[in-house]
Amino acid sequence: MKPRVLAIVGVGLIGGSVGLAVRRIGSVRILGVDRDADALRLARQRGIVDEACADVAAAARLADFILFCSPVDTIAEQVLAAGTACQPGTILTDTGSTKEAIVRAVDGRLPAGVTFVGGHPLAGSEKQGSDFADPELFRNRLVVLTPTAATDQMTVARVQAFWESLGARVRCTSPQEHDRSLALTSHLPHLLASALAGILPAELTDLTATGFRDMTRIADSDAALWSAILLANRAPILKALAKFDGRLQEFRSALASGDRKTVHALLTAGCEARRPLQGGA
Amino acid sequence: MKPRVLAIVGVGLIGGSVGLAVRRIGSVRILGVDRDADALRLARQRGIVDEACADVAAAARLADFILFCSPVDTIAEQVLAAGTACQPGTILTDTGSTKEAIVRAVDGRLPAGVTFVGGHPLAGSEKQGSDFADPELFRNRLVVLTPTAATDQMTVARVQAFWESLGARVRCTSPQEHDRSLALTSHLPHLLASALAGILPAELTDLTATGFRDMTRIADSDAALWSAILLANRAPILKALAKFDGRLQEFRSALASGDRKTVHALLTAGCEARRPLQGGA
After folding, report:
1. End-to-end Cα, chain A, rounded Å
2. Nearest-neighbour CA in chain A from B59: distance (Å)
3. Which of B212, B225, B233, B249 to mutate to test the interface with A (most CBs of A within 10 A)?
4. Which residues of A touch B179 (CB under 8 A)?
5. Which of A171, A245, A280 sits opposite B214 (nearest CB)?
6. Residue B269: which H helix or E strand, with range?
7. What ipTM does this complex have?
8. Which of B105, B14, B111 is nearest to B67 (CA)?
9. Bridging pattern class, strands B115-121 and B142-146
10. Model-level pTM?
11. Distance (Å, rounded) from C-alpha B278 to C-alpha B274?
């Protein structure tokens, strides 16, 4: 059931890590596609891909399983291009951090026998490029798949088996539910990290300690990739931001009035919500 | 020049780490004071203190160097109590995360020959208690001392030498400047981490990844200690929060209008400000 010929479109950190992880589960021919010739060369040098293809269509003609790890604002177009070029029976899936726009653009527009399900591995790093690719990146991580009423169930099962073979756990949810949840658990935190880092005057750099550094680590991510994510999911992110603003307003009022009991209660709520989350720095 | 008899008031993570670090620089008799009998017993068991004293005055009568590592809202009162009990020539300093209120409460109110300078090691953890004490906690960390016009210069030099002997770097600034800076680099981040953790619905716990976890790590800190810090420094924190709000508003407008160029510019600003900060998770 594993891919015979896997095409990875976008051989950066995620695509590169998939390639390295797939190497460990046996013999799979891996094709790489990337607009960035250097990225492609690096992926070949590291043994992540066997062959570099000139474009998505060229890879799609050869592959039976295509994984799109490219920026979220390019995935739908690439999926449709691959769908036109590939053989019936080919399975298409992606790793984009937002799902609704991609799934909506693809659903019902692929040729007969070509199937797609959206996916998102909750794994990554502020690091970019296959230099940092890690075959263990998906071990024990959650991959969310976002089938709709139109999605072929066998495709979901195959993509689930694919991720499980790399050590991940898989959960299915709707694209809308995915985007609403990730707005709060991933996109809002990213925005906050960036906002906090962005207001630090250079002369205070020396007065930061581990708290500030941990909180802003993800601010040092690719601005183009993240602009695309924030814009693709802006309505749910603005809602999450409004919820966050409400909590900030509670802190602000309590501080302004010197209300220790409320400040303590707010901090305790944060403590209690954080405690079940393992890990972090 | 090192202390002969060091009293540590508050033997939690910071006080305990000082005790362990002082053990390495030679023979110093260390007295411990803590309202929490268990904390005191643990500090003796771990060899952090040689003797437990019943109260600040009892320790002050024996010590030539007293370090207050207690919650910020208790330090000034303890310093004044120690000042009354100790011998002339005794040096008093602290590790509180806010400085202006403490220094203002102490300046000019100590008996002749008893001197105090405020201090704040930029080191710590969300962990609490001397269980987590680490003699290397201050290695290469910055300690800010906050002398005023009234502060004895020899006291500043002795306290500086003390921290340097534990591996720290020392910088002097005014209490006001310290509090303004730390509002932005430490207290605001703490409030944001707590606010973010506090709005996470329990059912989304599984959908958090390392970004959310790193950003909220410090939310799992002692709510009483941090209530005291946030309230002691509330005016500068409210100012820092207003600055942060301004940046959030820029993000909000750009997202609402789909202004990719501005979103990209804001993310780039965060990136560029974060890059010089080493470390983090």
Report:
1. 38
2. 31
3. B212
4. none
5. A280
6. helix B260-274
7. 0.92
8. B14
9. antiparallel
10. 0.93
11. 8
